[in-house]
Amino acid sequence: MTASGAHHASGARSIAADALSGFTNTGDHVSVTVLTQQDLHSAKEVGAPPHLWNLPYPPDRAFVGRDVQLTQLQELFKPHEGVEQTRSHVVHGMGGIGKSTLAVHYAHRNREHYGLIWWINADSPAQIDASLAALTAHLHPQWAAGVGVEARAAWASVWLQWHPGWLLIFDNVDEPRDAEPYLGGLTGGHHLLTSRRAHGWSSARAVGLDVLDDTSAADLLHELACDESPDRHSPQYADARALATALGNLPLALHQTGAYLRQTGATLVSFYNDLGLMLDEAASGIDPERTIARVWNVTLAAVEEQSDAAITLLYALAWLSPDDCPRGLLAPLCPDGRTLNKALGVLATYNLVHLTGPAVRIHRLLQLTLRRTPDPAGLSLTSLPTARGRAEATRVLRHALHPEGAASPAPQATWDLCLPHLLVLVSTVPDGYDDTAALPLYLDAAERLHEQRLDDAALPLWEGITREYEATFPPDTPEALHARHRMAAALMASEESHRALSLLDGVVADRTRLLGADHPDTLESLHDLGCCHIYEGDVPSGEAMLARAAQGRERVLGRSHPQTLKSRGYLATCYAMQQRPDKAVSLLEQVVAESAHVQGPDHLDTLECRDLLATCLGVTSRIDEAVRLREDLVADCERALGGDDPHTLSARTSLSGYYSLAGRTQDAIALQERVVRDHERVFGTVHPDTVTARITLADEYRDGGQKEAAVTLLEVAVADCVRHLGTDHPHTLRARTRLAACLVEADREAEAVRLGEELVADYERVFGADHHQSLESRSGLADVYRKAGSLEKAISLHEQVVAHRTRVLGVTDFFTLMAKSHLALAYFEAQRFDDVVDIGESVTAALGDAHLATSFLRYALTFSYAELGNMDEAIAQGGQALADFEHIQGADHPDVLLLRRLLSDCYWEAGQKENAIELMEQLLADSERVLGPDHPDTVQVREDLREREV
To answer: What confidence tens digit (pLDDT) does each residue in 629-681 have?
Structure first.
């Protein structure tokens, strides 16, 4: 951004804030969250105190052997020819090598050169967002108190662009892609990263950091242990050099050893003798975990002599999140606050933890060492019980979340604070460990995340719950079956239905055997299994299972029971997909009426049934009715559930899509921009519903002619999904698929083809070559080939998909028919009109007149029959297609005008000149009104009409 207030964005394919209402500046690889114009303005106006910084600890006075690297960093960040530039550099090396310490020293030595220095915990995307959000809380506390983490992080990103001259330190970046969006999107300052990764940095220059040289390592250890300048000719220095070599010259090991020697008064020689054999070296070099383990075994004995409480705290910290563990969370492990503070002080003295105000940090490498039992270093100085400290970690979380004797449950803020620690606890269960004490915590946390529509985050919890139940109970007990079912439901909510399918198959089989086919639990699993089959593209199997579930529930629970109505409603959607739209609409109208009578018109189940009905109306080309129903549904959801309820947001997204389908593109865009902002504010950028909302908005931008805006929005969505979820996650694959489609629409064919080909390979690697999603990716690539002009490739790929669908699913299966319709369009563009007629007639006959796809195929059939000289069939198909398009898109839609022209030409060629002229006169009047009298299309229609009248 410039000082004048003009909006600029980096990257060759960028758009600025004025181009997308409420969006922050975007460039290549930039992650954004929608902010209001007022928020953007405040980011410009709010200032910062001079030389603000938040370094996690002061520079260590015992800092040696890194002068070369410090000088190298200063040279790399130096202005080029006196001009400051945005620069990004990464310091990489093994754990314990001193990367963070080097970053602290660089920042401290150069603090006068920066207006702001901000330390960012970068071990995960969520931590990056939290660190940026903390900057906003410091600069703009009143506003920050009323918004979520991602909004605060977005505001901080905008603030940084308005206020140059800063240094951001991204500490412990695990994946380069986590930091890349910030390196490309935040300009006007310097980025310094630390990471164990040496490769994969496209936006940052890498600076390697190795262990200290022998002399520097000996100097450091001698200074730490003896608190005096080293005499390099003394016997004591020789002992320091030998011990440093045994420790692999690893800075973290040297610091911990020096702290131990200084605290206990032990000699270098005695420690060397206790340490045992020299460090083993693996083929790739020093094993830092083994090095730390050796030091830790010796240090632990000294700590244990001073404070049992310190040992208890240390082992508990091994099973919690390494960053910012609140001191108060650890309080139950000590009799009083004085003991707690003293114990933490002992740990800090031995360099085992860092104390940062009210929080405690522990090195990840030390955590790994503490968790591995018995004795990871191969020594036996101290006996290490299995999973020592895990019970204490569970106890402090239970005390915080399930306090005994409390009149009410812990507030949501406490759950939010403890969730990172629960996720570490559930993901680090040792083999064979009895984790039943933590099960209530996992269950409550999973249910709370489900209520917040954050099922992705709950999946590790359900996996842990399932693992524990299966280890504790026989596999067919009710508890184990319940856990497996809920894990499958979480997988489905995470769009991983391919993993859920086999899980639900087993649950249905076990519940049928143990409980009977008509037990409500069995029927619930059968219902979900049917839905899972539909998600996987097997609609006939899904319909059969939903029919059985509906019949069983009606028999056991009654026709109007909510669960019965749910199964009947989803069964109706199968009818719509299986070419029985009238039956689908009729059944859903019954379900909606019964649900409103039994549960009330505003009950969530009733609202969801109305949503299904609107979808079926859309599929049957009854667009006007579907739009009216969706408008009423949005109003009722807002009134009954609230504007931010997930169902309300989903209803708005659906309404926006139907506005677009009805030709109301500007209405669709205006509504969907609001929907995207709401989703990002409520759910975050990578929630499945947010991804869907962004894709819908991108489609509407494309339909409205804003093709580059569509591409940019999808690039942002893809970058966010890759950063948070990984390249292979279903959300990421879905966003990348839509991006490929939009790229080709924006005349960026080469990029679209490359991405489409990558997607096919990724889908087949993740799901298998014959999976429904893999076949859909091939169809998507074929469409990209077609739009890019590679018709032969497109046709060949479409033919392969049709052959596979036909062989596996049958000729009349919905997905087979959809694949054939795509092939017909490819034939149409290749002017293979006989093939268009052959496929188009069979597909439209199978789908029926009411299906939406039939209307679009009729257009291709009209043109094909006309090209083949069969004007009677062209007129028949064209007349029906025109009626369909007028009903779906409105009389003034450009597609309708084009179709009128085509039908008029068919009448003329068939000798029905009066009909041709009458239709052309209507077309001219509509073109003058819609396009304007001087529009090229209007002028051409006027000239053609004049010639025909003459």
So the answer is: 999 999 999 998 888 888 898 899 999 988 988 888 899 999 999 998 888 88
Q: Please give the pLDDT value at position 355.
A: 85
**Calpha distance 616→570 (Å, rounded):** 11
Token reading at 869:
């000289």
CA angle 644/650/654 to nearest 5° reads 135
CA separation (Å) from 775 to 342, 764, 782, 804?
63, 9, 11, 8
Helix or strand run (H / E) with residue 170: strand 166-171
The Cα angle at residue 860 between residues 854 and 866, in degrees rounded to 5: 130
Q: H or E segment at 102?
A: helix 99-109
Write the CB contacts of 393 (distance below 8 Å, at least 6 apart in sequence).
316, 317, 318, 319, 320, 421, 425
Q: What is the 3-state secondary structure (H, E, C) of 867-879?
A: HCCCHHHHHHHHH
Is the pTM for the entire model greater than 0.70? no
Residue 298 has what pLDDT? 64
Number of C-beta neighbours around residue 695 at 10 A:
23
How far is the CA of 206 from the CAs of 91, 176, 414, in angstroms?
6, 11, 40
What's the rounded Cα separation, in Å, for the pair 545 and 507?
Answer: 14
Residue 289 has a pLDDT of: 54
SS3 content of the chain, % helix, strand, coil (to 5): 65, 5, 30
Identify whether the C-beta of residue 279 lies closer than 8 Å to the C-beta of residue 291: yes
CA atoms within 13 A on the CB side of 352: 31
- Give every residue of the chain whose pLDDT is below 70, as ranges: 1-36, 80-86, 94, 274-299, 351, 364-365, 373-386, 453, 686, 723-724, 850
CA 271 – CA 256 distance, rounded (Å)? 12
Of residues 69, 127, 128, 122, the one with CA closest to residue 98: 69
Is beta strand 359-362 parallel, antiparallel or unpaired with respect to 353-356?
Answer: antiparallel
Phi and psi dihedrals of 191, rounded to 5? Answer: -115, 125
What letter does residue 213 receive in the DSSP assignment?
A: P
Count of residues in the chain: 950
Continuous segment of H or E residues that includes residue 189:
strand 189-195
Q: What is the pLDDT of residue 743?
A: 93
Q: Which residues, at least 6 apart from 1, have a Cβ–Cβ distance to it below 8 Å? A: 7, 8, 25, 44, 161, 162
First and final C-alpha spacing in the chain: 61
DSSP count for the chain of H helices, then E strands: 43, 11
Rounded to 5 degrees, what angle do the CA atoms 717, 727, 789 make?
75
With CA atoms as reference, report the closest residue to 444 among 431, 432, 430, 426.
426
Cis ω before 894 (30° cut-off from 0) = no
